[in-house]
Design a protein that fits this description.
- By secondary structure, this protein is α/β, with parallel strands linked by helices.
- The protein is built from 13 helices and 12 strands.
- It is elongated, with a radius of gyration of 20 Å.
- The protein starts with a helix and ends with a helix.
Length: 328
């Protein structure tokens, strides 16, 4: 029922379905998909997604869930690979090219390492959609479109929200060095924030190190009144660091999961910037299917944006149910 409702909502908001034949056809597809059956009779194509995710990243779990549910609906065999090290991510893409998949979805957190292999996919006749990271490079690399949020715009939204909250000194915590999207987030926040914003680089694969690094910074500079993490899993760690440091800084974060929604609800977090990862996975598969089936392309040469959306305490209760089922 939930899948059927979601499919109907997406149809109404994204496809402009009519209330007659088009809607009935879409409702039939949604009902079939809700039962775990393909809702179309197109060939059994194979799509692969390769991201820069590390192990256990809840954000990418949500992206993957959206992609898998769209694949079930679209009669797609869905393959997923990930590696936070750029060269290994590139090698995974090459392995799927060698398997002659029918479509590829890739993230471009470190675009220079991915440029050549994306070109190889294009040369092999495999359509590519980029997702989450790499909006600036996507078109130049030959991708059909990019799905995600503009990281600079998202950062600017954070700076504006910090201003509304009267913050004067913020710490932007970067957990993956070399990730261009993370730099853009902090730089965007710095652009619009009227106070002082500093960057802190941490080793994101080592949570104790993340906590101690933030804690040390807060102890050394009691003037910091806001800590901004760039991923939902790091927000609770920043809260622990703040408590250990005896700091009164507000902790805010990019991205959303059940813990973040709970933190917003209980007031331990100030706000979150949601880029709707479920949509990134779902739409990437759906758009590849539309391209294969009907040569459709969305975006008109510009990214298809899924965010940013600033989430606060007033939104938390409504979203908590969805985060617990792993779709927000």
């Amino acid at each position: 029922m939930a899948c059927a409702a979601l499919a109907a909502l997406l149809c109404a908001s994204l496809a402009g379905c009519s209330s007659t034949g088009g809607k009935r056809a879409e409702d039939a597809r949604a009902a079939q998909a809700a039962g775990g059956k393909a809702a179309v009779n197109t060939p059994r194509w194979t799509f692969a997604m390769v991201t820069h995710s590390g192990d256990g990243d809840t954000f990418w779990d949500i992206v993957q869930k959206g992609a898998q549910q769209a694949a079930d609906k679209d009669n797609i065999t869905f393959l997923y690979g990930h590696d936070e090290e750029a060269q290994r991510q590139s090698q995974l893409v090459q392995s799927y090219i060698d398997q002659k998949v029918d479509g590829l979805i890739v993230s471009l957190a470190k675009p220079n390492a991915m440029k050549d292999v994306v070109a190889k996919a294009e040369k092999a006749g495999i359509p590519v959609i980029t997702v989450n990271s790499g909006a600036a490079e996507s078109k130049a690399f030959g991708a059909l479109t990019h799905i995600g949020q503009d990281e600079t715009v998202a950062g600017e939204a954070v700076g504006e929200e910090l201003n509304k909250r009267g913050r004067k000194k913020a710490l932007c915590v970067l957990h993956e060095q070399g990730n261009v999207g993370h730099e853009q987030r902090c730089d965007g926040a710095k652009k619009t924030f009227k106070g002082d914003l500093q960057k802190l680089y941490v080793e994101g694969t080592n949570m104790p190190d993340v906590q101690s690094s933030i804690e040390s910074k807060l102890q050394a500079d009691p003037g910091i009144d806001a800590v901004v993490t760039l991923g939902a899993p790091f927000a609770p760690t920043a809260v622990k660091a703040k408590e250990q440091a005896g700091s009164k800084a507000e902790v805010d974060t990019f991205d959303l999961n059940a813990q973040v929604a709970g933190g917003l609800k209980d007031g331990s977090l100030g706000f979150a910037v949601d880029q709707q990862p479920y949509l990134q996975g779902y739409q990437a598969v759906d758009l590849l299917w539309l391209y294969k089936y009907n040569s459709d392309v969305l975006g008109g040469g510009e990214p298809v944006l899924t965010g940013p959306q600033v989430i606060t305490k007033k939104d938390a209760s409504a979203l908590l149910e969805f985060t617990k089922r792993g779709t927000r």
